[in-house]
Amino acid sequence: MTGQLDVARRPAPVPTAKQHHARRSARDRRRRAAAWRRTGFGLLVAVIVAVSLFPFLWILRTSLMSSQEFSEGVTGFLPKDLTFSSYGDNLSDQNFLRPLLNSLLICLVSTALSVVCATLAGYALSRLRVRGAGIVLGFVLFAGFFPVLAMVGPLFLVYRNLGLLDSPGGLVLAYMVYTLPIATWLLKSFFDQVPRSLEEAAMVDGASRLQVLWRIVVPVAMPAVFTSAIISFILAWNDFAFAQSFLQTPGQFTAPLAIVNLGQSQFQVFYNRIDAAVVLITLPVVLLVLFAQRRIVSGLTAGAVK
């Protein structure tokens, strides 16, 4: 017993200088390895960001060139004389302003209709006992990933028979077909996380199903509604395939379609005006995302964790 107490009371061996140096060297190697990993990750992120931003920076650089400098073929990264003349020419050109207003009106109408229909469809799939709801939701997801160019041909035949070609109404319907599936899926996923007790309490007080939806569920689901609206607007705003396929009259053109005809003369195409128009139609989307990024993230992640 005494021997065991002596062993327990025996002080721990003091590490030698060689062992202490080895431990310190191992710690230094781990710190250097961690520093190299952080540096490598930072360089990788910087390269990805630079590659992603380079096309937009080049477009911005070209848009700030004068027509004379562009005709001379200056290839430097920065223009000799920065000028906003291309922006002024575009903003004073009715061939660009009218398509810009057409795009704004068509996208706002299609976004509003898409969000309303997606809200009703998502709530029905989430709350009502619909036979084959899983099949319907699967079809919605399948339609959301369907290629745009594959939808152009069938829609063109339908529009030709209905007389909807070369009209804003036909483009609104096309954008609804394009944006409705993803908005429905997003809202249905969020409605699944809304407590049913809120609806039951309102229905006990005499509210109808639609009153419960618009007065109780929609205010709670506003982040998802806002996110679906932003995504639908961006998809419609950036569309070129539908507009190119269904519109023929220049007065009905949207902004992406009108850009093709900007800055063209008999012998040369002035890409500085075209790139200035690209910046002008991209700027609203960038500002919208920057100001609403918190709502977008909260809407996309809502219901991910219970």
TrEMBL record:
Residues 100-292 form the ABC transmembrane type-1 domain. It is a multi-pass membrane protein. It is found in: Cell membrane. Gene3D superfamilies: MetI-like (1.10.3720.10). Keywords: Cell membrane, Membrane, Transmembrane, Transmembrane helix, Transport. Residues 18-28 have a biased composition (Basic residues). The chain crosses the membrane at residues 39-60, 100-123, 135-159, 171-191, 212-237, 270-291. Pfam families: BPD_transp_1. Residues 1-28 are annotated as: Disordered. Its main location: membrane. PANTHER family: INNER MEMBRANE ABC TRANSPORTER PERMEASE PROTEIN YCJP, MALTOSE TRANSPORT SYSTEM PERMEASE-RELATED. Belongs to the binding-protein-dependent transport system permease family. This is Carbohydrate ABC transporter permease. It comes from Streptomyces xiangluensis. The lineage of its organism: Bacteria, Bacillati, Actinomycetota, Actinomycetes, Kitasatosporales.
